[in-house]
UniProtKB/TrEMBL annotation:
Protein name: Uncharacterized protein
Single GO BP term: nucleobase-containing compound metabolic process
SUPFAM superfamilies recorded: P-loop containing nucleoside triphosphate hydrolases
Protein species of origin: Clastoptera arizonana
Superkingdom assignment: Eukaryota
InterPro entries referenced in this protein's UniProt entry, alphabetically: Adenylat/UMP-CMP_kin, P-loop_NTPase
Length: 479
């Protein structure tokens, strides 16, 4: 019996150990974000719910096969009052966005009248979408117009990313007649009422079916140009269907582009951890461990800090609990494509890459105008400080802010920025760095709040350059 009791106690301990709280690997969430697994589950669940198939496994298998081509491609539907010249609107939007227009006439072109029905409309639309290559997006013209056509599209797993409803304020349809088509201008009062009644009858059904992608744009007192501009701003951005995300941001810019100032603002707004590479190397010099000894030894010998040491510092910092739980905003790194490859090889690579597009001469003027108070450490502008004041004598130029040092840093930045943009492809958000600081920050905050960029060539480039990653770890690149 004592042996049996001991055995039971051991079994109980084994069960308790198996029920312990599991720690999610640090690279799990970045992997989900990189390949948009959450959005895939969202799309599959939405289609299964709407179609309610008898064979769920076969349906999901077919859905995933179809989504392989249609993922990350904008599909825009316009629902507008009949008088609106929606053909002109869509054609101009197509030119500005490079989205392809798919019209009812194109779909029904070779079909006899007896086969022109919602199911054939959806079937032909599906064939065209699946057989297309490298399309940035689609705008559906003149369809769907009814509940039956909308449901037929859903059954073929054709769900719009944007459903734009052009609607007057307070249902007052006395909108700007400059928006009317030539045919609508010639309508009699009776024809106008008939068309509007048919439109209103279908409007609520369409809004209900496409409510997950619905966006209403008011048309009263808008010119055609204003309406096109409002629609353009909506359809070029993919809707955000992500779970609450942990931001991992990289801000790339020349010296004096206000990248660190912006990082501090993001830190205050989103509670991110600001990781600056120069500060990390300075802290590494006082570490009481093997890494700190190696950095101090290199300094004493006047040797540049090796790239592998920088990567060690960065890896340790980004895997600390605060960066994992709160996210981070990284500045002063990466400096070139090799740095980017190293950064992407970590467990928690960035999910937002922001490049500040600003003239380096403007950046140089900003940095060289900067003065430091030798007693208080406060930063002042030499141009704005009165030269006759007592404080002016206490100001000096920081050694890192000399013209020679700034020119060297910015020349290195200009040599590498285009290569880094080419490496990132569409995953890099380019922001106009010449904007006033409040508007510049607003633009950067908008990048964070939008949907994550589609996974593209960045990861593939990492895989193809694995040899160069290994070599760069042992290189003598320095800050």
């Amino acid at each position: 019996q004592p042996l049996n009791l001991i055995y039971l106690f051991k079994m109980a301990e084994a069960v308790n150990a198996s029920m312990r709280v599991l720690k999610v690997p640090s690279k799990f969430v970045p992997y989900m974000e990189k390949y948009k697994i959450y959005e895939l589950f969202y799309d599959v669940a939405e289609n299964v719910t709407m179609n309610q198939p008898k064979d769920h496994i076969l349906f999901i298998k077919n859905i995933i096969r179809r989504m392989r081509k249609a993922r990350d491609v904008n599909k825009v539907i316009f629902i507008s009052p009949p008088p609106i010249n929606v053909v002109q609107l869509i054609n101009r939007l197509s030119r500005e966005t490079s989205f392809k227009v798919l019209s009812r006439c194109t779909i029904y072109k070779d079909l006899p009248d007896t086969k022109k029905n919602p199911d054939s409309l959806a079937e032909k639309t599906f064939e065209i979408l699946m057989n297309s290559e490298n399309e940035k997006g689609w705008i559906f013209l003149d369809f769907p117009k009814s509940k039956e056509e909308a449901k037929a599209l859903i059954r073929k797993s054709i769900s719009p990313t944007h459903t734009i409803v052009l609607h007057p304020i307070n249902n007052e349809y006395n909108f700007n007649k400059y928006l009317w088509s030539n045919d609508a201008i010639l309508w009699s009062g009776y024809e106008f009422v008939e068309e509007m009644n048919e439109y209103k009858k279908n409007l609520n059904h369409l809004k209900e079916i496409f409510k997950s992608s619905l966006r209403v744009i008011q048309i009263n007192k808008k010119s055609m140009d204003e309406l096109i501009d409002a629609c353009f701003k909506v359809i070029v951005k993919m809707p955000n269907r992500e779970p609450p995300i942990i931001f991992r941001v990289v801000i790339i810019g020349a010296r004096g582009s206000k990248r660190r100032t912006l990082a501090k603002m993001l830190q205050n707004r989103f509670d991110l951890v600001h990781v600056d590479m120069e500060e990390m190397v300075n802290r590494g010099r006082v570490l009481d461990n093997e890494l700190g000894d190696e950095i101090r030894d290199l300094d004493n010998r006047g040797v540049c800090i090796f790239g592998r040491i920088i990567v060690k510092l960065l890896k340790e910092r980004l895997l600390e609990d605060d960066c994992l739980k709160q996210g981070y905003v990284l500045t002063n790194f990466p400096r070139d494509v090799n740095d980017f490859i190293l950064l992407d090889s970590l467990d928690t690579p960035p999910n937002r890459v922001i490049c500040l597009d600003v003239d380096t001469k403007q950046c140089k003027n900003y940095v060289t105008d900067r003065r430091i108070n030798m007693y208080t450490g406060e930063v002042h502008s030499a141009f704005k400080t009165n030269q006759n004041s007592k404080n002016f004598e206490q100001l000096f130029v920081h050694p890192e802010d000399t013209e020679c040092k700034v020119d060297f840093d910015n020349e290195n930045y200009e040599d590498n920025i285009n290569k880094m943009k080419n490496y990132c492809k569409t995953q890099c958000s380019i922001v106009d760095g010449s904007l006033p600081l409040p508007k510049l920050y607003e633009s950067i905050e908008g990048v964070l709040m939008n949907s994550s960029p589609a996974y593209g060539l960045r990861g593939k480039t990492v895989a193809s350059k694995s040899t160069s990653v290994t070599q760069s770890l042992n290189s003598n690149r320095f800050l």
